[in-house]
Amino acid sequence: MIRHVLPWAYGLAAFAFIYLPVGALVLFSFQDGSLPVPPFEGPSLRWYADVLGDDDLVAALLHSLTVALGSAAVAVALGFGAAYGLARHHLPGSAVLRGLLIAPLTVSYLIVGLGLLIVVQRVGLGLSLWTAGIGHVVINLPLCFAIIYASMGAQQQNAERAARDLGADEARVVLLVTIPMLAPAILAAFFLSVTLSWDEFIIAFLLTRFDVTLPVEIWSMLRSGLSPRLNAIGSLVFLVSVAAILVIEFTLFRRRRK
């Protein structure tokens, strides 16, 4: 009896530990009072209306979306190019190159951000959303490369050879054969990069000045104390992240079915 109950109890305790803070965040975003603490007074959409009516928050939200989508697209394009080159061509020191491409995954975002800040200042670029986007490309590129490279198997290679035998040039092979076959991995890398960039704080904080992303705006609001307004913002951020993860899962599920 205990052997059957214990795994379920452990699983429920693990899920409660993970999702209870998120549940409290979402619950008190509907608080009608001025503090996100018990007792719960509501439900009310007052703070969501307040957040969506704040021009600075809406601007920060749009900045985050722009940086996330733009940096994810660039990281996926560069990751695909690197993965295709290393998977389809025998280059000297390819194992070392793969290691160097994946190595940034082990480096702290703080170290990456400080290094990029020094480089940006040396080059003379002003801090902006562009520099934050560059930073997000740097941290997402290794992840995109790893996901796409791991999906490049013999099946795609045989299809590419067949296309070449039928007279297709290299550009047609890549555009009409390789990319469609790798579409699930490419989409998974893209949406995962969007999720990581969407709520990234350290690099965005170090590499922006006047136009800031949503996590930086939330941090500046936290200095004035807790408010259900922050819960509403956090709930919106969580909703976007969950939506991106669901798209990833749906994409991978379709790939497994095929």
TrEMBL record:
<dbReference type="GO" id="GO:0005886">
    <property type="term" value="C:plasma membrane"/>
</dbReference>
<feature type="transmembrane region" description="Helical">
    <location>
        <begin position="99"/>
        <end position="121"/>
    </location>
</feature>
<dbReference type="Pfam" id="PF00528">
    <property type="entry name" value="BPD_transp_1"/>
</dbReference>
<keyword id="KW-0813">Transport</keyword>
<keyword id="KW-0812">Transmembrane</keyword>
<keyword id="KW-0472">Membrane</keyword>
<dbReference type="InterPro" id="IPR051789">
    <property type="entry name" value="Bact_Polyamine_Transport"/>
</dbReference>
<dbReference type="InterPro" id="IPR000515">
    <property type="entry name" value="MetI-like"/>
</dbReference>
<feature type="domain" description="ABC transmembrane type-1">
    <location>
        <begin position="61"/>
        <end position="248"/>
    </location>
</feature>
<feature type="transmembrane region" description="Helical">
    <location>
        <begin position="7"/>
        <end position="30"/>
    </location>
</feature>
<feature type="transmembrane region" description="Helical">
    <location>
        <begin position="232"/>
        <end position="253"/>
    </location>
</feature>
<protein>
    <submittedName>
        <fullName>Spermidine/putrescine transport system permease protein</fullName>
    </submittedName>
</protein>
<comment type="similarity">
    <text>Belongs to the binding-protein-dependent transport system permease family. CysTW subfamily.</text>
</comment>
<keyword id="KW-1003">Cell membrane</keyword>
<feature type="transmembrane region" description="Helical">
    <location>
        <begin position="173"/>
        <end position="198"/>
    </location>
</feature>
<dbReference type="GO" id="GO:0055085">
    <property type="term" value="P:transmembrane transport"/>
</dbReference>
<feature type="transmembrane region" description="Helical">
    <location>
        <begin position="57"/>
        <end position="87"/>
    </location>
</feature>
<keyword id="KW-1133">Transmembrane helix</keyword>
<dbReference type="InterPro" id="IPR035906">
    <property type="entry name" value="MetI-like_sf"/>
</dbReference>
<feature type="transmembrane region" description="Helical">
    <location>
        <begin position="127"/>
        <end position="152"/>
    </location>
</feature>
